[in-house]
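Consider the tokenized backbone below.
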């Protein structure tokens, strides 16, 4: 009994000592940038009731920690400058942060196009060697998930140099470089981003409870990750048993490439697509896809190739049982088919896909999936047979998108209330299939962040670039166009700005490499929204033309715009406008002729005698648009109608 008592006393003493030292969260550190012209909160932990003194320049602030050991003090607003030294002193220890600057601090967040590092940008080879910008700093937040709010992150501040710049967010780097050149003050970037994530995982539980649809999801959040792993294992087990007939033996799997294999009991999936959205939720592993292709008699089968677009992550591809190629990582596949392997009549293509995490499946654009020869093209997009061959352990573990709130809890909440000027955001691709719901969830997230920080800071974001996600357009519907519309509608929130990037996307790559123009366009919006400065004395030079209203004159639609700046123009050497469509009461859209008349656009199509609606850039891949103002900012894609889209019924968690 006495031994147990002494052990308890020692444990209490160790606990008290561990909390006796003053400490600060990792958002603070040497080389950090503090926000100018705003109160600067500084906070951390110490022993209960311990006095903590913070010193910076002539400011000396003392605060007493609470009974829980937490403390917080606020430094008075300061002008830009540095380098300085910030000192935190307690009873038993002193912490000193060196090389502290005061300037402008911006959160950089979103999914992969914000995460995309400078080393992978289009002009990385020329930009990195000259990236000597000691007044630009980045705090790279390490990826983490949590079901409950955390109070600290992993990460440290880095000074921009040719050695560190490759790991900077490319969009953030070019944004900071442009701002620093205009404002002549230090710029701090807090890079908290994660590829492939949806907006709901960046939203707090409190905010989700304010939305009737999301409230149902919030109420289903598990208590622990052990519960998540157990539930995931049970879910995958049911999936395999009920939909796939169990996992195969190695010998059985070897027969799946053969042309005469009987796959009649296999399930079907519309290909190409991410299998996460087709019933294989959270599955990492191996899945086989098979397709029977009937080649017409008399077809000339010379120099045949199989194009199957991009794969996540690796593939082995067979034709009539023979391996014709394999590749690791994303990127289009174009495999040469040996002469004589294909025959008129029945043929079988089998693709063994290995997904090591996140997105899985055959995910390239539909038009990239085909058989191609000298005089023959056979489209292959459509229903393929599939069956799961193997399930990796990572399938049972929670990912960044498994539940809402996780990244808010782990990668944003610990940053609050660090003083910031604003946020730049590049995200939306993962929400595109729920674009209509994004009209609510995106503004909800912005307001959520602002409420947690306690002020309506500028929130600037990138509209989705052109990319042929699902070959969507006005005729068959476009999830990406509807997502862009939701982003445009979010401009109704105060202190928001949007960078349009339809003209600098890449048709076959969801990650356009031109991040410099993205950063510069965000910086132009920052100058307008955050700093109230405008080029040439105009308040319209940071953004492109935005549709205002439409009038009908016979068979012509006349469109007027806001943000015209110094005038409209078509970026085309012949002056032709592209990207416009018009429809009548039958709601069928036809490509239209469009002409600039002053600050208006006149649109008409010979097939539409009485126009009711006009659309501009309404497609997944809308890179052919070319309307600008003379300040060289592209027009915002738009539609004048409110006809029902294809994403209205799709909700989060379905």
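A designed sequence for it:
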């Amino acid at each position: 009994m006495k031994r147990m008592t002494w052990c308890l006393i020692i444990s209490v003493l160790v606990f008290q000592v561990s909390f006796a030292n003053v400490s600060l969260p990792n958002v603070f550190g040497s080389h950090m940038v503090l926000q100018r012209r705003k109160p600067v909160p500084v906070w951390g932990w110490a022993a209960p009731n311990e006095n903590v003194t913070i010193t910076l320049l002539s400011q000396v602030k003392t605060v007493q920690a609470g009974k829980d050991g937490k403390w917080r003090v606020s430094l008075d607003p300061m002008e830009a400058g540095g380098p300085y030294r910030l000192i935190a002193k307690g009873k038993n220890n002193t912490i000193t942060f060196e090389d502290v600057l005061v300037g402008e601090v911006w959160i950089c967040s979103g999914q992969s196009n914000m995460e995309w590092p400078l080393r992978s940008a289009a002009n990385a080879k020329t930009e990195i060697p000259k990236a000597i910008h000691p007044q630009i700093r980045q705090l790279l937040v390490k990826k983490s998930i949590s079901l409950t709010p955390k109070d600290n992150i992993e990460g440290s501040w880095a000074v921009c140099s040719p050695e560190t710049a490759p790991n900077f967010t490319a969009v953030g780097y070019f944004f900071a470089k442009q701002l620093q050149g205009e404002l002549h003050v230090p710029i701090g970037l807090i890079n908290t981003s994660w590829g492939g994530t949806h907006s709901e995982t960046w939203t707090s539980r409190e905010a989700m409870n304010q939305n009737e649809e999301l409230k149902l999801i919030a109420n289903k959040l598990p208590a622990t990750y052990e519960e998540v792993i157990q539930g995931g294992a049970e879910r995958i087990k049911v999936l395999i048993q009920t939909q796939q007939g169990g996992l195969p033996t190695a010998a059985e799997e070897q027969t799946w490439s053969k042309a005469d294999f009987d796959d009649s009991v296999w399930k079907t999936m519309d290909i190409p697509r991410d299998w996460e959205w087709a019933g294989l939720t959270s599955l990492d592993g191996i899945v086989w896809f098979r397709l029977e292709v009937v080649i017409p008699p008399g077809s000339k089968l010379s120099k045949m190739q199989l194009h199957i677009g991009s794969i996540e992550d690796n593939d082995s591809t067979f034709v009539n049982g023979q391996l014709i190629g394999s590749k690791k990582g994303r990127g289009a596949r174009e495999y040469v088919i040996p002469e004589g392997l294909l025959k008129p009549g029945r043929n079988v293509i089998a693709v063994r896909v290995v997904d090591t995490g996140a997105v899985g499946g055959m995910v390239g654009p539909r038009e990239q999936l085909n058989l191609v020869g000298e005089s023959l093209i056979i489209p292959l997009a459509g229903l393929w047979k599939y069956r799961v061959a193997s399930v990796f352990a990572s399938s049972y573990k929670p990912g960044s998108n498994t539940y809402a709130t996780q990244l808010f809890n782990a990668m944003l909440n610990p940053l609050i209330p660090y003083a910031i000027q604003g946020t730049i955001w590049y995200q939306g691709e993962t929400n595109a299939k729920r674009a209509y719901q994004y009209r609510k969830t995106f503004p909800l997230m912005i307001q959520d962040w602002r409420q947690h920080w306690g002020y309506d800071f500028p929130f600037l974001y990138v509209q989705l670039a052109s990319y042929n996600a699902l070959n969507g357009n006005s005729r068959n519907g476009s999830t990406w166009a509807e997502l862009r519309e939701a982003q445009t509608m979010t401009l109704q929130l105060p202190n928001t700005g949007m960078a349009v990037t339809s003209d600098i996307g890449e048709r076959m790559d969801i990650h356009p490499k031109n991040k410099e123009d993205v950063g510069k366009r965000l910086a132009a919006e920052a100058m307008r929204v955050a700093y109230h400065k405008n080029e040439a004395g105009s308040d319209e030079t940071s953004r492109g033309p935005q549709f205002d209203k439409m009038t009908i004159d016979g068979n012509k639609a006349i469109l007027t715009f806001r943000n015209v700046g110094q005038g409209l123009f078509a970026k085309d050497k012949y002056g032709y406008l592209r990207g416009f469509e018009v429809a009548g009461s039958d709601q069928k859209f036809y490509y239209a002729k469009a002409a600039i008349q002053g600050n208006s656009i006149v649109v008409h199509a010979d097939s539409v005698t009485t126009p009711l609606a006009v659309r501009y850039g309404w497609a997944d891949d809308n890179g052919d648009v070319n309307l600008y103002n003379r300040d060289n900012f592209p027009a915002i894609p738009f539609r004048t109608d409110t006809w029902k889209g294809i994403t209205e019924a799709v909700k989060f968690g379905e």
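Residues 1-18 have pLDDT under 50 and may be disordered.
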